[in-house]
Amino acid sequence: MGRLMADVTPDYGPTHPSIPSLPGRGGKKPPQKTPNFPFPAFSPKGPPMSSHATPRTAARSKARAAARLAAVQALYQHDMEATPIAQLLNEFHNHRLGATIEDAEYAEAEVDFFDDVVKGTEARLGEIDTAIAGKLAKGWNLARLDKAMRAILRAGTYELLARADVPVGTVITEYVDVAHAFFDKREAGFVNGLLDAIAKDVRV
Question: Is the dihedral angle over the CA atoms 116, 112, 166, 72 positive or is it negative?
């Protein structure tokens, strides 16, 4: 498959000192620096949830979205501080998921799904990083990507590799939404394009 190419060298700026909290009532997304190169324009890979979805289906979708966002935070923290996975899971279970911290409400998350994404990403990290690196532009590697971006791409790639029960369109759309929580539109387009390219390799 083709690689995602950039016309000029990207500039993500300095690594984020901390990842923002889960969006909730009163939560605000901090401004982020737009990269100095054009990402391809991609449209979302799946339709929005049907307006005819049952309350149970809608609740599960929301809980999984919260689980993905929390998993990205946990993976970011692991990358930044080398916090052991078991400690991270315990911290999120007891102090973050569904909690209110500094007036920001952490949404209720599907805990088993959160655990699977975090533990599965760490267990298959070598395979995941190889898949991501294979789609980066020439001269680029994972070390040059912002740590928050790495966490998003790793979690999304894990789902494409290991969660055949989740449709490709859902995986891509959900992690594009996660990217919007931390970055501007162009970075979200990069997540879309890279995960789409990986999906074409790993999903038949």
Answer: negative
Distance of alpha carbon 150 from alpha carbon 146, whole angstroms: 6
Number of other residues whose CB lies within 10 A of the CB of residue 179: 25
For 169-199, what is each residue's pLDDT tens digit? Answer: 999 999 999 999 888 888 999 999 999 999 9
Residues in contact with 94: Cβ distance below 8 Å, sequence separation at least 6, in sequence order: none
Under a CB-based contact definition with an 8 Å cutoff, are residues 64 and 113 in contact?
yes
Alpha carbon distance 37, 114 (integer Å): 33
Domains assigned to the chain: 55-202 (1.10.940.10)
Q: Is the pTM of this model over 0.85?
A: no
| C-alpha to C-alpha distance for 201 and 204, rounded to whole angstroms | 8
Residue 107 has a pLDDT of 63
- Tokens 């387009």 belong to 189
